[in-house]
Protein 1
Amino acid sequence: MPSLKLCSSFFLQLIFTLFVFDLANAQGLKVGFYEETCPQAEAVVKKTIVPVIAEAPSLAAPLLRMHFHDCFVRGCDGSVLLNSSTHQAEKDAIPNQSLRGFEVIDRVKTALEKACPGVVSCADILALVARDVVTAIKGPSWQVETGRRDGRVSNISEALANLLSPFANITQLKAGFQQRGLSAKDLVVLSGGHTIGISHCFSFAPRLYNFTGKGDTDPSLDPNYIARLKVKCPPGAVAPIVEMDPGSSKIFDDDYYTMVSKRRGLFHSDASLLDDSETKAYVINHASTLGSASFFEDFGVSMVNMGRVAVLTGKAGEIRKQCALVN
Ligand code: HEM
C-alpha cells in the first residue's frame, strides 16, 4: 500500500511543520534570545541591579510589580514605561502612580545601549529585572524567556480598565488571569509577590472603616489585625504606608500564605484566595514552612507564564532607544 504510506508520512510531516510553526509563532520568546546579538545582556542587567538592591532593598518590590503592571495592560510590551505625551499614559493611572524605580530601568537601559546599541527591548529589561530583584532579596531564580519587543502605545484608560482592583473578589481575579491565559494556580502563586513591599492605606482602608458603605469592617479580615491597621491608617489617611508582610517585607519568603491563612492578607483580593477550593488549598499547604521550596519553584514558573502575555515578537513593535520614549 505505497499510497497509504506516502499519505501518512505526508500528514506526519504536515503535523510536524504546523507544530513547529505554531510554537515559533505562539511566542517567539526563548531563553537566551540575545545569546548571539548581545551575549552579555543578562550579565549587564544583573551587574546593574545587584548593587542597587543591596543599597535600597525596598526597590525590589516596585520593580517586581512593574513587570506585572506592564504585562496586564497590552501585554508585556514595556508600555508602562512610556511617558505621557499628547495624552496621558499608563504611568498616570492611579495604580501606577505608586510604582517606583523607573530610573533603575533607565540605568539598566543605558548600560545595555552602551554594550549593544539598539538590541535589548525595554519589555525584556522589565522581565529580567523582575527576576534579578527577587533573587537579590533571597527569593528564587528562574530562566527568563526573552525576545519581546516594545510597543508604541500607552493609555491611561487601558491601565485603569485592566489593572485588577485590590477590592476584587475571586471570580473577578480568576477571570482577569484567565483572559490573559493564566490559571488559578498562577493567580495564587503570583499573589505571593505580596510577601514583599508596602501598600498605601487607601488600597485597603474601606476594609477597616466602610466595607459595604455602612461604616462596617470587612468580616474576612482578622479583627485584631484591623485594630492594628487602624492605628497605622487613621480614618481618611491617604499617605501612610504599611508593610504587606510586617517584619519581613524586604525578604522574599513564603510568609504571605501564613498571613492570608490567618485572615491577615492586606487586600480583599488576598483574602479572596480563601474563597476558591484550588487557591485555598494552595494557601493552606504553603502556610507552613514545608511549602517554601515548592512556592519558590512555582513562582518562577508562573513568572515565566506571566511574561508570555500578549508579547510583541519578530518584526512587531520596536526596540526603544530610551524606555520612556517611542523611537
Ligand atoms: C492578583 C491581583 C493583584 C492585585 C489586586 C494587587 C494589588 C496591589 C496593590 C493595591 C498594591 C499596593 C499599592 C499601594 O498602595 O502602594 C500592591 C502592591 C504590590 N504588588 Fe500587587 N496586586 C496583585 C497582584 C500582584 C502580582 C501578580 C505581583 C507580582 C508578581 C504583585 C506584586 C506587588 C508588589 C511587590 C507590591 C509592593 C509594591 C511596593 O512596595 O511599592 N502584585 N498590589
Note: The radius of gyration is 21 Å.
Protein 2
Amino acid sequence: MTDVHDYAAVGVGPANLSLAALGADVENLRSVHFEARASFSWHPGLLLPEATLQVSPFKDLVTLVDPTSRYSFLAFLAGEGRLYRFLTARFPAVLRTEFDQYLQWASRTIPSIEFGTEVRSVRERDGYFVLHSGHGEVTAANVVLGTGQTPLIPDFMRPHLCADVFHAGEFLAHPREVSGRAVAVVGGGQSGAEIVRHLMRLDEPPQSITWITRRPGLLPMDDSPFTNEYFFPGYAREFHGLPQARKQELLGEQKYASDGIDLATLQDVYRERYRHECLLGRKDWLRLMPRSEVTGCARLSDGWELEVKGAQTSIVRSDVVVLATGYEYRLPDCMSELAPRLARTADGLVVGDDYSLSLDGETTGRIFLQNGARHAWGIADANLSLLSWRSAVILNAILGYRRYNT
Ligand SMILES: Cc1cc2nc3c(=O)[nH]c(=O)nc-3n(C[C@H](O)[C@H](O)[C@H](O)COP(=O)(O)OP(=O)(O)OC[C@H]3O[C@@H](n4cnc5c(N)ncnc54)[C@H](O)[C@@H]3O)c2cc1C
C-alpha cells in the first residue's frame, strides 16, 4: 500500500508532541498526529497565572535525548529573543504559561499535526490500523495513543456537577463567581494547593475556604536528589521488570515523590493564610481538614452540604465545591472495538518494554501507549521527566533501528 503511514498518533498533548518533534527530521518517516482541539493548549483549565513547572525545563520535548534538537525549550527562548532576559529573570521555576507558549510554538512548527481532528474509531483492516475522524480515514501500520488522563470524580458527586461544583481541571474553563462565597476544595495534592493559593490571592477573595483532604496532612513533594532518581530511564526500566505485586508496593511508597505538593506552593499558601488571618484579622478564614473524606453531597436551596468523615462525621456548607480529586487513565472511546483484544492484568493493560500494548491476533503493527502505564512503568509515567525518552523508545521501535540513544 502506498498511502500507509508508519504511525498515526491519537491526541497531541506534551507526550505525542514530543514524539512528533523527535520524528520531525527523520527521513522518509510517514506520520500523522491528530488532536481534537483546534490548537495546542496544555491543561487550559488549570493554567493559573502563578503556576510553575514542577520539573526542570530541560525536561522538555526533546533535550534529554537530543540536546541539539531545534524543538528544545532553549531553542524556543532563543527564537523569541528572550534568552538574556529569561536568564536574568532567574525564575525559581519556569511559569507554566511560558512552557505552554513553548509547547504551542513547537506544535505550530511541526507539519504532521492535524488540529481540530478527533479520532472516533481505530479498527483493524488487512493487518493495518484504520483511524476514522470526522474528516475521513487514515491507514497506519502503528498507532500511538497519547490521549492523556481523565478527571477522577467520586460517583456521588456526578449528579451535582454544575457551574458551582466542578473538577479542578475545569477551574478556568468558565468565569467563576467565588468572591464573597464559601468555597470548599476537595483534594490535598498539587492542583488543590494551586487553587487554594489562587483563591487566597484574588482581589475579591471568597468569604471562606475549606480545604478537605484524606491525606494525614498537606504533604510536600519529595524533590530530594536520591528520590529524583525514580525519574531516571534506568530506574523506570528496572521498575518495569519487577513482579506486579512489588510494583504495587513501590507505587504506594513512592507516592509523594510525584503526588505531593511542591514546597514553594505550600509556603505561598502558608504565607497567604498568615496575611489573611493575622494581618487582615480574618479569623479561621482558611479551614484545613486533613484525614477527612467527603462521603456525600446534598443540594440546599442556597448551596451545598458536604458530608465529611474524619475523626467524627461533620457537615461542611459551601457555595462552590472544587474537586481536586485527581486523574486516572482510561482507554479512549475510539479504542472500543480493539479494547477486548488487549491483554490486561488486575492492575491494568499489559505494556511491553517498548511501551507497546499486547494485542491478540495476527496484526504485525503495534499500538503504543503514552502516559497510561503508571502500574507498569512507575510514578514517572505521568510526569514530564521521561517524556522525550519514552517517545524515543517508541520511535526507535516503530523505525526498527536505534535512531535515538535510549
Ligand atoms: C495542571 C497540570 C499540571 C501539570 N504540571 C506538570 C509539571 O509541572 N511537571 C510534570 O512533570 N508533569 C506535570 N503534569 C503531568 C503531565 O506532564 C501532564 O498531564 C501532561 O499534559 C501529560 O501529557 P499527555 O500528552 O499525556 O496528555 P494531555 O496533556 O492530557 O493531552 C492529551 C491530548 O489528547 C487529546 N485527545 C484526547 N482524545 C482524543 C481523540 N480521540 N482524538 C484526538 N485527540 C484527542 C486531548 O484533546 C489532549 O489535547 C501536570 C498535569 C496537570 C493536570
Note: The longest strand covers residues 136-145.
Protein 3
Amino acid sequence: MTHPPEQTDGQSPADQSQHGRIYGAARYYDIAFAYRDFVEECDFLMSAAARHLGRAPASVLELAAGPANHAIELARRGLDAAALDREPAMVRYGSEKAEAAGVRVNYHQGDMTGFSLDRPVDLALLLLGSAACLLTNSAVISCMQRVSEALTPGGVLIIELPHPRELFNIDDATEDGWEVTRDGTRVRVRWGSPGDSLDPVSQIAQVTTTLTIWDGGRKQVIRDKAFQRRFTVQELDALARASGGLDAVAWFGGLDLDVAIDDPEEAWRMVAVLQKPAIPPALPNA
Ligand SMILES: C[S@@+](CC[C@H](N)C(=O)[O-])C[C@H]1O[C@@H](n2cnc3c(N)ncnc32)[C@H](O)[C@@H]1O
C-alpha cells in the first residue's frame, strides 16, 4: 500500500514554506494586499460566526495574521483581539499598526501548528490563503487541534483559501498582477510566474512572487518563492473531522454571505466555517 508523500519528519512545516523575504518586508506586504475592504470583510466574519455561535463573538484570534488588519478592525469594534504570526517583522509591524490605531491587539510570535492561549476565544481566523502554508495533513490537523483547544465551546474558525476551481484548472497556472499606491509608496505585485509548478500528487505548488516597489524616489524588486498547498472542499472537510475538534458547518464562495461555494459565476474563494462542538463528544464506554 502506498500513501501520499508527507514531509513530517525532521523538518517542521514552518521550515518548508517560504516567502520569507516578502513577509519580512511587512510594510510593503501590507501595501500590496491593501486592495481588500477590511471593514466589509469583518462584517462578513462577524455575521458568519454569529450564525453558528448563536451570539456576536466577543473575542478573536487572527492566525498567520501578517499586518493583523482584521484583528485591528475587530479590536476597534470592541472584541478582545489576539494575533499570531511566525515572522518577527510582521509581529512588530502589526503591533505598531494596532498601537497607531489606538487599539489593543495581543500579538505573539509563534507557529500556528503549536500554540496555546491563556484565555479561549469565540472566533479564530486564517485568511487570505495562509492555510496554504500548511503543506502536510499532519500540519493542518495540528493547527486545527490547537485552534479547537483555543476556542470556546461552539466557537468557530473561518478559513479563506483559493477556490478549488484554480486547482483543477492546472493547465492555467495562476498568474496575477495588480498595483497599490499608499502614502506615496507604489507596490506592483506579480503573483505566480509561467515557470511555476504544481505537483498533482502532493498538491503543492511552487509560487514565485515579485514585488516591485517605488518608495521615496528609490525602486527595488523583491522576488521570492514559496511552497503552497492546494486544498479541495472534501479534503478540508475530512481534515476538520480528522482533527477530532472541529466540524465544517458552512461554506461560502467569498467573504460574502450571499456567495455560495458552488456558485459558478460568483464564487472565487473557498471560505470554510468550522465549529468546535458546543458539547464535547462523549468518550467511548463513558
Ligand atoms: C499570505 S500572509 C497573510 C497575512 C494575513 N492573514 C492577511 O490576511 O493579510 C501569510 C502569513 O502567514 C505567516 N505564516 C506562514 N506560516 C505560518 C505558520 N506556520 N505559523 C504562523 N504564521 C505563519 C507568514 O509569516 C505571513 O505573515
Note: The pocket of S-adenosylmethionine is lined by residues 13-14, 17, 23, 33, 64-66, 84-87, 90, 111-113, 127-130, 133 (CB under 6 Å).
Protein 4
Amino acid sequence: MGKMTEAEADALFAEIDANGNGEIRLSELRDYGMANGGTVGGVKLADFVREADKDGNRRISRTEFRSHFA
Ligand SMILES: [Ca+2]
Ligand SMILES: [Ca+2]
C-alpha cells in the first residue's frame, strides 16, 4: 500500500506483537484493536487480516505486515 516507510511498519509491528515472537496472532490484533478503535494503521482489523495474511495461516508475519503497509 506504500503508506508507511519500512521503519514505520516495523515499529507498528513491534507495537502489536505483544509477546515479541515475530508474528502477530489474531488475539494480539484484537487486543491492539480494542485500544485503537478496531483499526490497525487506520485499516479495519477484519479487512487487514483478510488482505495482509497472504498464506492464510491466520498469523501475520513481519514480511506480510511489511508488504501490506510499506
Ligand atoms: Ca506475537
Ligand atoms: Ca500469514
Note: The longest strand covers residues 23-25.
